[in-house]
């Protein structure tokens, strides 16, 4: 069964007692964007959805995990990671530019988000730099990723890593020709 992003956003917005305009104002996006997403006429980017959810407030993990089951689990098979991104990327768009973020367990319960990230060639978190009240770090497992933090830019290869204060504007881009995989951690959880 396919996840209904629009219905879930509408459900959370209404549960918070907000109109579409209220949420748009709080999230710093247009009312039209909220309306289009709720009617499933627009598939938001990861950055846009995260910005909108910040206005409710809720995390992407909570957005996609309606049951919030398994809070006390310790071990997870590869197929048991929570997929935070594939549900918002429309099918049939091809792999170019896609990102996939899979989370280990319940990030809120542990105040730590651990992600297995995959960036296809051309993937980019977007021209709007990300900022959030966290600290994050990661290790590149394969491929290459360009990481921008403030005015510093570095292209990292397998085995190299990053660690920074996430309140500094930042961006991730796969400028290579091969997919890139990263294992990252963020506290407190961001997505």
From TrEMBL:
One of its GO terms (molecular function) is DNA binding. It comes from the Bacteria. InterPro entries: Cro/C1-type_HTH, Cupin_2, Lambda_DNA-bd_dom_sf, RmlC-like_jellyroll, RmlC_Cupin_sf, TransReg_Diox_bact_type. Keywords: DNA-binding. Transmembrane segments: none annotated. GO terms for cellular component: cytosol. PROSITE patterns: HTH_CROC1. Residues 9-63 form the HTH cro/C1-type domain. PANTHER family: HTH-TYPE TRANSCRIPTIONAL REGULATOR, HTH-TYPE TRANSCRIPTIONAL REGULATOR PUUR. This is XRE family transcriptional regulator. It comes from Chelatococcus asaccharovorans.
């Amino acid at each position: 069964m396919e996840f209904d992003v629009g219905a879930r956003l509408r459900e959370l917005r209404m549960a918070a007692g907000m109109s579409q305009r209220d949420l748009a104002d709080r999230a710093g996006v247009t009312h039209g964007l909220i309306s289009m997403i709720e009617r499933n006429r627009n598939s938001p980017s990861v950055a846009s959805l995260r910005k909108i959810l910040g206005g409710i407030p809720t995390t992407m993990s909570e957005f996609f995990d309606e049951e919030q089951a398994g809070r006390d689990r310790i071990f997870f098979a590869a197929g048991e990671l929570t997929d935070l991104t594939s549900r918002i990327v429309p099918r049939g768009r091809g792999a170019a530019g896609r990102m996939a973020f899979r989370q280990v367990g319940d990030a809120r319960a542990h105040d730590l988000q651990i992600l297995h990230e995959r960036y296809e060639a051309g993937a980019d978190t977007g021209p709007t730099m990300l900022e959030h009240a966290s600290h994050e770090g990661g290790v590149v497992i394969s491929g290459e990723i360009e990481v921008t933090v403030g005015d510093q830019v570095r292209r990292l290869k397998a085995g190299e890593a990053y660690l920074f204060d996430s309140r500094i504007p930042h961006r991730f881009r796969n400028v290579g020709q091969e997919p890139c995989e990263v294992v990252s951690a963020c506290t407190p959880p961001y997505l």
